[in-house]
Design a protein that fits this description.
14 strands; D-Maltodextrin-Binding Protein, domain 2; alpha+beta
Length: 329
């Protein structure tokens, strides 16, 4: 049924309820002229007269009474459905579907979801982490996270924080194997490599050279399609790895990892949050978007400044030279 026919039927029922077409128009948020026109079009469409009306009074015709008795249950059911949707929109409880890339977002998503669930215990998160780029509509996504700006039509994207790729190793690894002074020196080191979870291909390291981001292939001593496992392999002291800033930042600040070749940190991409029109979002979705932006936008827990990189690298090299001098004595 076209929406204008539905509105005309509702106007007719409201006119009978209030006893006035003018009052029905006010209740429907329309002008008396528009209400009168809508009723006339409905009568023309049905081919019968529904109301006897004068400038002051209205009365049902026999056909109008029969039509109203048939239409009222359907109109009441429709009103209940509309009220239910409005109530659900304003309810902070209910399902919340979240998607994001597994390899880059796993260290970030749980603290965010945990804090949100403590604030809104009635929310039921459905979190899907996958490195493939799915279809926003078909996957029924409420909120998503992605690397880069790749939003579909009608989807809003907002930048959260830079995605850095940092070459690093533990002090123990550097004490045993030395510190690489150039990208070429990496061929003499045990390096880890990330295998794309979807394609299965080894991903070369992405490094910055003269302002450009280029591929730098390494011969891996270990390869894995799990970002957490790669972090653990580097923390074990067995190899050098190129890790995401969100995974490495805390370890670098604590001294567990030393950043290396920091002039070559790749930082041309960022993590974005994606969502539909905020005006049509349920309360729980709007609240999650707000909390995600408050917690993640430019959060230095997930990246380091150039100065921090330089200081951490210099401190690591100083400690390594001190160790070497002591071992030579």
């Amino acid at each position: 049924m076209p929406i204008n026919e539905l509105r005309a039927i509702a106007t007719f029922a409201k006119a009978v309820e209030t006893g006035s077409l003018r009052k029905a128009a006010a209740a429907q948020g329309m002008s008396p002229q528009a209400a009168s026109q809508a009723l006339a079009q409905l009568e023309q469409h049905l081919g019968v007269r529904l109301l006897h009306r004068t400038t002051r009074n209205i009365a049902l015709t026999d056909e109008g009474r029969q039509f109203l008795e048939t239409a009222q249950p359907a109109l009441a059911a429709l009103e209940r459905a509309l009220q239910g949707v409005r109530a659900a929109k304003d309810d902070s409880a209910g399902p919340l579907r979240i998607v994001g890339p597994r390899s880059t977002f796993l260290p970030v998503i749980w603290p965010l979801v945990e804090a949100f669930c403590r604030e809104f215990p009635g929310v039921q998160p459905d979190v899907q982490l996958d490195d493939r780029i799915g279809n926003w509509v078909q996957d029924r996504v409420d909120v998503g996270f992605r690397i880069g700006v790749q939003a579909e039509d009608g989807v809003i994207a907002r930048r959260l924080y830079p995605l850095q790729l940092v070459i690093c190793a533990t002090p123990a690894y550097l004490a045993r194997h030395g510190v690489p002074d150039s990208l070429e020196d990496l061929q003499n080191h045990r390096c880890s490599a990330f295998r794309h979870p979807v394609t299965g291909h080894l991903i070369p390291w992405l490094v910055k050279v003269d302002g450009d981001i280029i591929h730098h292939a390494v011969s891996p001593a270990l390869s894995t399609n799990d970002a957490e496992l790669e972090v653990e392999s580097v923390l074990s002291g067995l190899m050098i790895g190129q890790l995401m800033g969100s995974s490495a930042a805390a370890h670098i600040r604590s001294g567990r990892l030393i950043p290396l070749l920091t002039d070559h940190v790749a930082d041309d991409k960022s993590i974005f949050i994606y969502y539909g029109s905020r005006t049509a979002q349920p309360t729980r979705v709007r609240a999650f978007i707000d909390r995600a932006i408050e917690r993640l936008a430019d959060n230095t827990a997930y990246f380091l400044s150039p100065q921090e990189f330089k200081l951490a690298e210099a401190a690591g090299r100083k400690a390594w030279r001190k160790f070497r001098l002591a071992s030579d004595v």
